[in-house]
Structure formats: C-alpha cells, structure tokens
Design a protein that fits this description.
Two copies of one chain form a homodimer. Chain A is α/β, with parallel strands linked by helices. Chain A has two domains: 131 residues, Rossmann fold, CATH 3.40.50; 109 residues, Rossmann fold (3-Layer(aba) Sandwich). Chain A is built from eleven helices and nine strands. In chain A, the strands form two sheets. Chain A has a five-stranded parallel beta sheet. In chain A, α1 packs across α10, α4 packs across α6 and α4 packs across α10. The radius of gyration of chain A is 17 Å and the shape is globular. The mean pLDDT of chain A is 96. Chains A and B meet through α7 and α8 of A and α7 and α8 of B.
Chain lengths: 247, 247
C-alpha cells in the first residue's frame, strides 16, 4: 500500500513515526506545506483551499490512501478533500475521537482537548465525542506550544510558565487529546503536569488504531520507502525527518 | 501624500502608529499578508515572491510612497520591490540602521539586534552598521516573542522565562534594535530587562526620522484617512487596528 501523508508543516512527522513503527505501508509520500505553515491561525476557506491543493499535488503519485496528519485540516477540510481525491482520505480527528472513546472507562470521564485556535473553534472533537455520548468535555487553544516546540524547547521554564498560563484554572482531565501534531513532542511534560493517570491521546497512535480497524493489512513492511516534499525548504524538512524518525 | 504600508501581518500597525503620531500623511493604505504570516521563518525566494505580489496589490492605488514595515521583507526584498514599484519604496531596516547610529555616542558602543530567524540570517543590520563603522554588534533570533505577543501576552512569567532563555548569556547592550514590528509591544519588558540606559530602536520612530530627513513634508494632516486590507480575515485586522491605534 502506497500512501500520502499531508501536514501543514513538519508536525505530521510524529504521525509518520507511528506508521513506521507499525510497519503498515510499502511507501509513504509526505507533503508538508512549509511555505504556508501555520494553518492553525488561518480561516476556514483558506484552509480548504490549501487542502485541495495538497490533494492535487498527491495526484502526481498513484496513492491508495491519503492520511491528513494535521488536526486543523482534518477538522475543516476533510469532506472537501474527499470530493477532490481519487482514493480514500482519513484524518486524525476522527481517529482521535475513536481512540479517546476506547481509552475512557465510562461516559462521565473528563476529556480535555488541546489544539490550535482553528481546531478548537471548529469544535470537531466535541461534535464527534458528543455523538458517541461523551459530554464532560473542555477544549483549550494552546497555540503557543507550536512555536515553542519548533524552537526545539521540550522542557524547562518557558514550558512550565506556559502550562501555568493555559491550565491553572483547568480541572485535571481523565483523557487529554493532543489535538495538534506538535504536542506529542512535549507529551512527557504534559503527562507530568496532568499526572500519570491521565490518558494521552496521540494522533499517530490513534490513526494506526483507526487504520487497523478500517483496512486489512495482509503483510508487514520491514522497510518503508519514504519520500519527502515541502512547499518550501525541503532540505530542512528532510533534516528534521532524519532526526525524528532515526533513519 | 498618499502612502502604502506593507507588512506580513498585523505587526506593521506599530509603524502606522508612529506615522499617525507625526501627522505626516493624508492617506495610509495598509496591507497585511495575514494569510501567509509569518514571513520570518520562510526562505528568501518565497519572501521576495510575496513582496512583489504586495507591490502589485498597491498598484490598485495611486501611491506616492511604499513603506515596508516588516523587517524580514526589508532585509530580503527591498531592491526587488523597488524594481517592480512605480513609486519610492523605503524599508524599516535602512531606517533602523540610521536611527541606531544617531542614538549611539561612539562607534565602540555595543549593539544587540533582535529579529526573526530570517532577519537575523540576512545580516542586513550588521552589514549596514559595519559600513558606518560600527563593529561591536551581536544579533539574536528571538522569534518566540512574535506568537507570545500575538497571544496578547505583554508581561509575566512566560515572557520572563523567554528573556532568560534568549539573553542569559548575552552581554547588556548600549542600544537594542527591535528588529521586528511585534517587539515594540513588549518594549517595557525589554527595557526593564536591559536597564534604563539601553536605547531601544523602534522601527516606527526610525522610519519617521528617516522620512523627515529624506522627504519634504510641507504640511501636517490632523486627520489621516486609513484603509486596511488583509489577505485573510480583514475584520480581525481592523479590530486590532482600532485597539492599537485608538480610532
């Protein structure tokens, strides 16, 4: 199976990492729209326009599946991408909703959804979780984590001050949705802040769980062919990919 | 005189504020490329392409002058903009260089240049200051201040931790160039950190100083007509403009 992974920038590499660990695919074509990142502060029409352009780009390859690794795109543009694409398109939001439901013991447990401003405004996670009967939900736009992670800050005072800024008046949740691909890179710090009992929902693991349920994988690929494309500075993307994915 | 002010986003409003205070212009047309902000992490060719598109946009108005309020664009794309434009184009970097020279007592004083990654990599301030005989220069990419200011955080623990992160091993300067239009919004915090004796170079004030030297202004305008354009979400730009410019 040959798939495309689309993200607004480099964050989607955390999803690729999960895909590689599970050896599901023969070939992964990654496209990061690094010239126009971040999407999380853009409005709906712009996000849809960029997402359709990504589908057009993927038509250069004969893909069996497109995975939308970006939560913001998944929240706003999935149906438009499906209309334009000639293969199935799956997004991390629907996967994250199911993974959250699987992780919780009962429908009264508290869920905290973190994301960019656009993802939180979309209420995509709440809508999906409500439909499954979960009502104890809170969402918080925590966009500052994105540039902090991009400065390669994964611990220390800036992060601690930012956690306090965002969460000092937020009740501790039973599950925490890392609704932006950058957030898994600070999962240790978040786990430390919210405590060991809090279940962290990671987009990469959620999408693997979702794919294994929806598709039949008849074989494991010991080696996956990786192709990286970026709308700007592809060398920088490849350097980070090598670092994060250890290849 | 009817002018255009170009910025990658909302930051250039700090330059407009200075222009209004000095009552230099009859009409100001502001264009913020909010759909593609931030420029500070993009590469040179992309910045030049976007800057030329801005010049094309300004051709819809009969302008006497274009001011580039964005340090990153001023550092990389000024000559290309001048080639495309049919009116003079001035940038905050050349203005900032002259303002710094005017603010210093002698050529041995220490200058610290703050900016986005792209502005700092361009070495535009260093090149200009070197040419004037200033050698005691240090530049520091402090990009995190941009999203922090955009979260409307102007003081407190996150900023203090970020100051420590960037400056704990930096010698205190005699002059500090605020080489990004967002930084004047945290000038109190920066002044507090570096001490009262440190001269802060503000792009808005620098451009006024530069214009008053280069052009003849025969009258003051008690009322300036303001027009705001944004490549995305113009309402958000107007709301912030009203707040920052008090109109």
């Amino acid at each position: 199976m040959k798939i495309g992974v689309f993200d607004s920038g480099i964050g989607g590499l955390t999803v690729v990492k999960s895909l590689l660990e599970h050896k599901l695919f023969e070939e992964i074509v990654y496209f990061g729209d690094t010239a126009r990142v971040p999407y999380g502060v853009k409005d709906k029409n712009t996000i849809i326009r960029y997402a359709i352009e990504a589908v057009e780009f993927f038509k250069n390859f004969e893909l069996d599946l497109i995975i939308v690794a970006c939560n913001t795109v998944s929240a706003y543009a999935l149906s438009e991408m499906r209309e334009s694409a000639s293969c199935p398109v799956v997004g991390v939001v629907e996967a994250g909703i199911l993974a959250t439901a699987n992780a919780l013991s009962n429908k009264h447990e508290r869920v905290l959804i973190l994301g960019t401003k656009a993802t939180v405004n979309s209420k995509a996670y709440e809508t999906g979780l409500n439909a499954l009967g979960y009502e104890n939900l809170q969402a918080k736009a925590t966009g500052l984590f994105v540039p902090i992670v991009e400065e390669e800050i994964y611990e220390g005072e800036i992060l601690q001050a930012t956690l306090k800024h965002y969460f000092s008046s937020v009740a501790k949740p039973d599950a925490l949705i890392l609704g932006c691909t950058h957030f898994p890179l600070i999962s240790d710090v978040l786990q430390g802040y919210f405590g060991k009992k809090c279940k962290l929902i990671h987009s990469g693991d959620a999408i693997v769980e979702y794919l294994e349920k929806e598709f039949v994988f008849s074989q494991k690929y010991e080696k996956t062919q990786l192709k990286f494309f970026a709308s700007e500075n592809p060398d920088a993307l490849k350097t980070i990919a090598k670092k994060w994915l250890n290849f």
